[in-house]
Amino acid sequence: MSSVVRAVLGSAFEDLHPKVRWRFGLSSDDSHCQLGVGVMEEMTHSALVPPPVLWLGGKRGLFPAGKATDVPFTVANYAYVDAIGRETLSFVRRFAFAGKPQGMNSVMVTPARAEKPDYALDYLGYRSDMIVHTRCSVDAEGGLLLESDGPRVLGVKIPQLASALTAAREWWDENEQRHRIQIDVTSPVLGKLFHYHGWFTAEEYPCAAADIPDYAVPSKLMERE
Known about the structure:
mainly beta; ten-stranded antiparallel beta barrel; 3 helices
């Protein structure tokens, strides 16, 4: 099966930098995983984000709730076909905040109901509590742009004025010979809520479907699209 991002981008997938194509070309047919290590040079959030939201987001693996610079982190990617037949790319991220490590899990899924999907589905959190539609595009440097609309939380769509939009970019840094990533979450009303940027390196390893760890698969399968 085609990888999730390849299915969404179609022929534009070939415009990605080869290192980015390698990252997002991972599919269930490959029987491999990718393991990466790096540093988040800045992780911050607005003072307008309510503490209960930060607490809940951190506890359920929706987003890292800490503020810090130069945070070591790991990212693991696993590709598989989920129980309802959808191509899936799992992201398992762990952030080594001083004294309080945090995690963020997500799965990117090819919609089952679209022959030629123009978006991917992202399920966020350890239990897939949040779902967003993510549009993919390629920038002038061969980086991947991921833009997500307002989320649904536990199946309920949040009104746009109370919601937030996510813009992420992953690209290959030729000078430093490593992957770079930047993520911004912005509210139409409150402005920028979260900002992360950093770098990582990654390698590929054999990984059969039976070897994918349980924590890389959401503890609750969501069929909502």
